[in-house]
Amino acid sequence: MTLSQIIFVLRSHPAGVALVTLLSMLAGVLGGHKLVGFPPHLQGRVLDTGIASKQIMLDKPETVLTNYHTDAGPLVVRTGAIGQLMVSRSVLDAIAHRMAIPSSAITAEGPWNGPPSIYNVVTPSEARANQVLAESTPYRLTFMTRTGLPVITVFAQAPSPAEAAVLADVAFPALRSYLEKMHADNDAPATHPLVIRDMGPATPGSVGGGAHKAVPVLAAVATFILGLMALLSVAALRARMRDASGAVGTAA
After folding, report:
1. Domain coordinates of the chain in residue numbers?
2. For 12-31, how does the pLDDT look when each residue is reduced to its tens digit (9 = 90+)?
3. pTM above the 0.85 mark?
């Protein structure tokens, strides 16, 4: 079908073109909004990602917070090793089990040393490959330490803020259980046992700004093009049927 024929068909079916235009506008609106409530009303589609953070402290039975004679230096050194343990597959599997999600749905990175906000951290170049591979993983953990402090900050990312908070919170009991198992497997009792302390529930939040602006436009354009193609196909089919019936009538 040539361009002139397409224009002729579209001009011959103004009602069909109007219907396609109306449907494309509706698709554009629904691409960025959804119907909720009763009576139904439009609400913007939210594509925010849930985030949460919490802190885990490495301590001694005679806590370093209240005993100024207790040296926190060895604990600070130990934070890196514990952080490495938390990104191990064994601990991640324990976290996934507590979350009731597949192990393949969770990934972790770190521990990095930097400021307390993960969004201010320049990720080392050697970690970028792992980050790219983890972009499609819905549940992500990042562990950070700070120079001079026996504290590990847990940053969690999940499909919703509530899930992110749960993900960050279960990292503590999963780590504690794993350390207890290691201690139980050790025949010799620990002369200087390590105590890990939960510094409170995770603080949830979200990042993002709703549906991407391109989504409604793409939905409207795609619906308009598909609608016109359907209209042209129907018109072409009807024309062939008329030609066929005319040829049969002439032959008769």
Report:
1. 3-44+213-251, 49-207
2. 888 888 998 998 888 888 77
3. no
